[in-house]
Structures are given as structure tokens and as C-alpha cells.
């Protein structure tokens, strides 16, 4: 059902604590701004302190009086995630909203996180998995249940979980690895919803995607060394996003809807309503068959628990 939903329709979030990963720019910043403008206390997180400071300064201009802080959190590092979660648990007894937004796209060459995971799989999926597992007690301490919003992508539609080469050691292709990581994000959101129902946790797991939004994600690695085919794919993506994409503020609406709207359903997936879900108003997004496959979900869950040393079941 298409809704002409805007941030003004979101409920007041006064007294609620929200955390957004990768909030120093793009969709993460816009989501943090939306939450702050509705009165939430927002923790913007990121891996670059200078960008964090700049984002806070910008937020104060965009939403004067906003209650916001910046904290270092590198979601590609299990150590950073554990340290961050431990510190947060010492400061608050509940977390109302967690938005797993931080992500990287199309790393030109196969790169690894410091834990030895392929960069996109580690940053876009294993990191959010571990963070959610570590913050679950705080989210479940919210009387009406905390919300976990996972940012997936249209790329999930053509993604495949390659279980016998999850870390792309045998064969690496930048956008293939991205598609896998984003399908894994959608599976994370849907399986977390099922685990939540099974265990009776007070938790709400919802997924969202922004369609095509004009952010730094496509342009940030444009000038890095890469093969002709990858470079053409990236240039094509940049132009497609420029010509047919929407603003970051619009792209963030499905994410903000998932984070705040009372009508957002547990286990729901929201995106833009226009052709191909590339732009438009907030609506229910299409869930590909691979994301609904329980065998894939259970297997991925076990792998993620083993690799991250955290438990979400
Ligand atoms: N833009 C789109 O059209 C689109 C479409 C589908 C899905 N998405 C998804 O939307 C999310 C946000 O992307 P965006 O378009 O807003 O891109 P963006 O402008 O590049 O922003 C990404 C954010 O994530 C942060 N980040 C990257 N790696 C990180 C790490 N290891 N730890 C902490 N923060 C990290 C970045 O920080 P730095 O500046 O320090 O790198 C930045 O703040 C991603 O999950 C992406 O897959 C975007």
C-alpha cells in the first residue's frame, strides 16, 4: 500500500534513544536528522571522527536544538562493535531504535576487514549482525520493544548467497559481492523477525531500502584503480543515480518510516513506490524468493553466529 508519508507524519520520539550507523553522510545522516527532528535523542556513529564532527555541526544547523552526539563505531571491526556495545550498556539501560545503515558498495578489488572477512560481506552484513546481537539486551529492555531497522537494497533482488565461497576467495566480482551482502541484510531482517516471534522477545525487526538515492556510495571509489568493466559499471551507476535517482532525504523516507511509523509491520520491507522501486513514496517493497527461503536463512544465521562469535537465536 503506497503511503504519501513524510517525516511530519512520524510520531514524536521524545524520550527515546536512537542509534544510526554510518550517520556521517548520505542516508544515515538523513535518517539521524529525521529522528532528531521528531525529538529522539540520537547517537550518530561512524568510523571517521572528523566526518562525525562535521555531521553533528550540520545537524545542529538543520535541526536547531537537536539532542545528538557522535560516537566512533567501525562496523567492519568485531572489536570496535564489542567495545562500543559494552560502553553503551554502561551508559543506558535501553535502546529504542537501532538503524543498521552503514555500508560500502563495489570495493574494486577484494579487500578484507581486520577480522579477515571480505569487505562488503563483513561491513554490510556480519557487522550489523554482531552489533544487533550485542545490543539486543538494550533493545529488548524497551517495554514496547525496540526496533531494529536493516537497510537492504534493490541489489538484493539479484543477489545470491554463495555458501561455498561466502568470502569470495575463489572468485571476486565487486557488485556480485555487494548483491550478496545486501541479500544477506534482507535475510537478517526477516529471520530476526522470525527468531523474535519464536522467542517472544520484545523486539521489532523491519527492513527498508532507499531505491536509488544520490549519495556518495557510487562516487566514492570512482577514481580508485579498477578494471574497465567495473569502471564502466560504476560510471553507469553514477549517471543512473544522477538522472533517475532521488535525493538522499527522499531515499531515507522508507528507513525513517521503518524506524518510527506505528503502522510499520514487524517483518515488513519498505521502499519507494515508483517504477522498479527506484524512487517515489513509501510502500511495501518486493521480497525476492531467496530472502524468503528458510533453509538459506537458517544456514546463513549459523554461519554468521560462528564467524562473529555472537548469538542472535
Ligand atoms: N544510495 C543508494 O541509492 C542506496 C541504494 C540501496 C542501498 N543503499 C544502502 O544504504 C546505506 C547507506 O548508503 P549511502 O547511499 O548513504 O552511502 P554513503 O553516502 O557512502 O554513506 C555510507 C555511510 O556508511 C559509513 N560507513 C562505511 N563503512 C563503514 C564502517 N566500516 N563503519 C562505520 N561506518 C561506515 C560511511 O562512512 P565513511 O564516510 O567514513 O565511509 C557513511 O557514513 C548502505 O547500506 C547502502 O548499501 C544505498
From TrEMBL:
<dbReference type="Pfam" id="PF00106">
    <property type="entry name" value="adh_short"/>
</dbReference>
<protein>
    <submittedName>
        <fullName>Oxidoreductase</fullName>
    </submittedName>
</protein>
<dbReference type="GO" id="GO:0016491">
    <property type="term" value="F:oxidoreductase activity"/>
</dbReference>
<dbReference type="InterPro" id="IPR036291">
    <property type="entry name" value="NAD(P)-bd_dom_sf"/>
</dbReference>
<keyword id="KW-0560">Oxidoreductase</keyword>
<dbReference type="InterPro" id="IPR002347">
    <property type="entry name" value="SDR_fam"/>
</dbReference>
Amino acid at each position: 500500500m503506497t503511503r504519501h508519508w513524510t517525516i511530519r507524519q512520524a510520531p514524536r520520539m521524545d524520550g527515546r534513544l536512537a542509534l544510526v550507523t554510518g550517520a556521517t553522510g548520505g542516508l544515515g545522516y538523513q535518517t539521524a536528522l529525521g529522528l532528531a527532528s521528531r525529538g529522539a535523542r540520537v547517537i550518530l556513529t561512524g568510523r571517521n571522527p572528523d566526518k562525525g564532527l562535521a555531521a553533528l555541526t550540520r545537524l545542529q544547523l538543520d535541526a536547531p536544538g537537536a539532542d545528538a552526539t557522535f560516537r566512533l563505531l567501525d562496523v567492519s571491526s568485531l572489536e570496535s562493535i564489542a567495545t562500543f556495545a559494552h560502553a553503551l550498556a554502561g551508559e543506558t539501560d535501553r535502546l529504542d531504535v537501532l538503524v543498521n545503515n552503514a555500508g560500502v558498495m563495489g570495493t574494486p578489488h577484494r579487500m578484507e576487514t581486520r577480522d579477515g572477512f571480505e569487505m562488503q560481506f563483513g561491513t554490510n552484513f556480519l557487522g550489523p549482525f554482531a552489533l544487533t546481537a550485542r545490543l539486543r539486551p538494550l533493545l529488548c529492555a524497551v517495554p514496547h520493544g525496540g526496533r531494529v531497522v536493516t537497510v537492504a537494497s534493490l541489489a538484493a533482488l539479484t543477489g545470491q548467497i554463495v555458501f561455498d565461497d561466502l568470502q569470495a576467495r575463489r572468485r571476486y566480482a565487486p557488485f556480485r559481492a555487494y548483491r550478496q551482502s545486501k541479500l544477506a541484510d534482507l535475510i537478517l531482517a526477516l529471520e530476526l523477525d522470525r527468531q523474535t516471534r519464536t522467542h517472544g522477545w520484545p523486539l521489532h525487526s523491519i527492513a527498508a531500502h532507499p531505491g536509488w538515492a544520490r549519495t556518495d556510495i557510487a562516487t566514492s571509489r570512482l577514481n580508485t584503480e579498477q578494471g574497465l568493466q567495473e569502471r564502466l559499471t560504476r560510471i553507469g551507476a553514477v549517471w543512473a543515480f544522477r538522472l533517475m535517482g532521488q535525493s538522499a532525504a527522499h531515499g531515507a523516507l522508507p528507513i525513517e518510516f521503518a524506524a518510527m511509523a506505528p503502522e510499520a509491520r514487524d517483518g515488513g520491507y519498505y521502499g519507494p513506490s515508483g517504477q522498479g522501486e527506484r524512487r517515489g513514496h513509501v510502500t511495501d517493497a518486493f521480497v525476492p524468493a531467496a530472502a524468503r527461503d528458510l533453509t538459506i536463512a537458517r544456514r546463513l544465521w549459523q554461519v554468521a553466529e560462528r564467524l562473529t562469535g555472537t548469538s542472535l537465536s
